[in-house]
Amino acid sequence: MSISTAHALLRVALPVPLRREFDYTCPLPLPAPGCRVSVPFGNRSLTALVLSHPDDSDVAIAKLKPITAIIDQIPILAEAELKLLAWATQYYLHAPGEVYFQALPTLLRKGETAAYRSSPYWHLLDEQAEVSTQAIKQQQALTLLRQGPLSSGELQIRGISGAILQALAKKQIIEKREQVPVPNDWRDTALIIAQDDKPRLTTEQALAVSVIQGANGFTPFLLEGITGSGKTEVYLQIMEAVLQAGLQVLVLVPEIGLTPQTIARFQQRFSLPISTLHSGMNERERLDAWLSCRDGSTAIVIGTRSALLTPFARLGLIIIDEEHDTSFKQQEGFRYHARDLALLRAHQLNIPIVLGSATPSFESLHNAASGKYQLLTLSQRPGTATVAEHVLLDSRHVQMHAGISPQLIELLGQDLAKGNQVMLFLNRRGYAPALLCHGCGWLADCERCDAHFTWHRSPSRLHCHHCDHQRPLPPACPQCGSQQLIGTGLGTEQVEQALTGLFPQYGIIRIDRDNTRRKGSFAQHLEGIRNGQYQILIGTQMLAKGHHFPDVTLVAMLDADGALFASDFRATERFAQLYIQVAGRAGRASKPGRVVLQTHQPEHALLQDLANQGYRHFANSALQERQAAMLPPFSFQALFRAQAPDANHVQSFLQQLVQQLQPQLPATVLCLGPLSAQMERKAGQYRYQLLLQANNRRELAGACRLALALIDTLVSARKVRWSLDIDPAELW
Ligand code: ADP
Ligand code: ZN
Ligand code: ZN
């Protein structure tokens, strides 16, 4: 070793997509693992995370470069968190840098100091201030601010808009002030639980609470409870003891499940600091929330997928609501599943973890059946709430009005006349999914995808939902010059238009990605539904998840046929979950509800099963089919995806890979492909895939490692973009 005695080696993770760690030299004393340093990389300077202090390097020591600066004196990630990420790197066979940096907020990735900085917070100027009882939002804002200062962003996610804050500021009741947040130790403040909104538990709820509270150390629970059966109430009650012991609770929710109502339920019960972590936050808010988890000054964290990778000072319980939701799986870069990593984290910390759902994923049902998870069931709704009646409407030979049958129109009219709300689902936004020339049959196709343009009318445009390409509507057919361009198929805009014509006397709101893009508009629409401004609600699945609308008595799925014939073997599971979620929107309160499904396949076994026997019955028989076919969760899969502007490049890359890989694989590892993606060309890229499947994880991982090593030697790999997805949630 020619390294000077005052220097030693540092092994670091760099935010680059390479499956390796990097060594540098560093003057003594060395920064501990979990600290950031700056290092030269090529002709750039990068922020790196220290992983270990190796004795030796694969690279000649003389060739190693010295680091340029130490950023942290104290590690920003603790040993346990580093271990979790190291394990994730191994399991997902992903570039370590991308894994470790996923756990850091953007500002820390950029080298910002890991400390709170002064930023604007709203303060209450007058504790005694009162506002008119009519001004409900202003009152809510005051209630929140009595517990301590909050940023505009934190208030926004709790349903308080900038306008409300300005109004209060004008009355000199609140004021915006620059402030450095002080970590507070909430363990000193006695836990105040609002007893008056704590309902008496049902027998099933009480049993679930006592079993979970009796758990000693790591115990995974699957809380299977029909929509409205009081799962959230179970979460709230099991959190109590954990918080009382001074430990933090992490609640993971799906991407679109984090609404002001969700937070309000937790805030109402516990007057303790609650942080949220989600994609709508700005970089500073994210860092502040991250720091407050890490230093323990927040008690409850409600967040989406990435919140799972946040460091916690004293985590005592993990809850995953709607555990079946696919948004827990990251679909690009580091393709982790937050539920799977959460189980690992709970195991590592030796704490309980609760997975809740009305429609558990097949993986979780399988784990419950095999005894890995303890199953707890809530089969009834508390109080007088009833379970909805299911109606299958045969669409065959029926004259439809914008996709709505006369029978459904009548049912809608009946419920509306009684003063109730109705909800219609269609998972296709826009006016029509294709634009067709009536003269010659020309179809407006996206030039970059194997797909039709969707026709939108407000604002008018053609829009490809696969690559986001947009263009104006052509004035005439480019092929024959005819001006008779007509939409074919049905989108949410068209349903909205039709219903406006049919029921002009009622308020109509459409909820899809197009009209919820503006920050806060989704929450605003939900508020309008809740306060009765709208009676007819039209939406995509955005509307299906987890929202309480007590006056909705009828929900209808306009088109169920697509999912019945999809090629992905998971399509039926997803459809069943969506159907039950949708059905769960009806009859949540004391009014009986009805679920209507329009289909050309009223006799289809899946629909019959769901409508008459429920999700669990369907799931059990579908799981038997999966077992017979040896599909997941009875086997394990990994998917190599590859794409390039030239189809030949992609095909020859995957063919070479298969040719070299196949002979080296044990007979127990199945290798399928190359298969073209269902939509072969997307955004100008040709897409192919190779599926590996085995009955045991170790063998599958071995095969993937072999493939990765081969790819390193293939020249053809350089002409394509490829990725590896362990436990893929979908085929291309
Ligand atoms: P889930 O999370 O399973 O959909 P919730 O916890 O949201 O169900 O409960 C549905 C509704 O029933 C809520 O309005 C909730 O306040 C109420 N609720 C829950 N548990 C009880 C109970 N034991 N007694 C009365 N009402 C309850
Ligand atoms: Zn034409
Ligand atoms: Zn396109």
From TrEMBL:
Residues 472-631 form the Helicase C-terminal domain. It is an enzyme of class 5 (isomerase). One of its GO terms (molecular function) is hydrolase activity. Zn(2+) 1 binds at residues 437, 440, 477, 480. PROSITE patterns: HELICASE_ATP_BIND_1, HELICASE_CTER. Keywords: ATP-binding, DNA replication, DNA-binding, Helicase, Hydrolase, Isomerase, Metal-binding, Nucleotide-binding, Primosome, Zinc. Binds 2 zinc ions per subunit. It catalyses: Couples ATP hydrolysis with the unwinding of duplex DNA by translocating in the 3'-5' direction; ATP + H2O = ADP + phosphate + H(+). Residues 212-378 form the Helicase ATP-binding domain. SMART domains: DEXDc (SM00487), HELICc (SM00490). The keyword Transferase does not apply. Its EC number is 5.6.2.4. Its cofactor is Zn(2+). Zn(2+) 2 binds at residues 446, 449, 464, 467. Component of the replication restart primosome. Initiates the restart of stalled replication forks, which reloads the replicative helicase on sites other than the origin of replication. Recognizes and binds to abandoned replication forks and remodels them to uncover a helicase loading site. Promotes assembly of the primosome at these replication forks. Belongs to the helicase family. PriA subfamily. This is Replication restart protein PriA. It comes from Oceanisphaera ostreae. The lineage of its organism: Bacteria, Pseudomonadati, Pseudomonadota, Gammaproteobacteria, Aeromonadales. The gene is priA.
